Amino acid sequence: MPDEFLVLPSDLSAEFAAIKAKIANALDKLECCYQKKLKRSLSANIEKLEKGKAVIEFGSEQHASGSNGQSTLVERSLESVDRQKSEPVTLD
């Protein structure tokens, strides 16, 4: 066995533990990156809403929010919620 490498089971478990730790760290970093990106996007959208320049989508409809549009958007969204509540649901 001059060129072969012998791996003991205890060595394998240590290697797998190290790999699991590296993967967990990479996933944690990826999660933090996505959370930061989402927070930036949400804060930008909130700023747009405060300025009255945002476009809000309800299903296939698009409405631009403004001083007059905000109340109609709320009314339309409440109407759609009321419609959904009044429609009977059947389970097959």
Helix-strand sequence: HEEH
Radius of gyration: 27 Å
Q: How many structural domains can be distinguished in the coordinates?
A: 2
Class per helix and strand makeup: mainly alpha
In percent, how much strand structure appears in the residues? 5-15%
Looking across the biggest beta sheet, what order are the strands in?
Answer: 1-2
Can you summarize the main beta sheet? 2 strands, antiparallel
Round the mean pLDDT to the nearest integer and report it: 71
Helical fraction equals 55-70%
Which consecutive residue ranges, at least 5 long each, have pLDDT under 50?
A: 65-71
Say how many strands there are: 2
| Shape type | rod-shaped
Q: Count helical runs.
A: 2
Cα(first) to Cα(last) distance is: 66 Å
Biased composition (Basic and acidic residues): 76-86
Region (Disordered): 60-92
Biased composition (Polar residues): 62-74
Account of the 3D structure:
Residues 60-92 are annotated as: Disordered. Residues 62-74 have a biased composition (Polar residues). Residues 76-86 have a biased composition (Basic and acidic residues). Helices cover 66% and strands 9% of the residues. The chain is mainly alpha-helical and 92 residues long. The protein starts with 8 loop residues before the first helix and ends in a 6-residue tail after the last helix. It has two domains: 9-51; 53-86. The chain has two helices and two strands, in the order H-E-E-H.
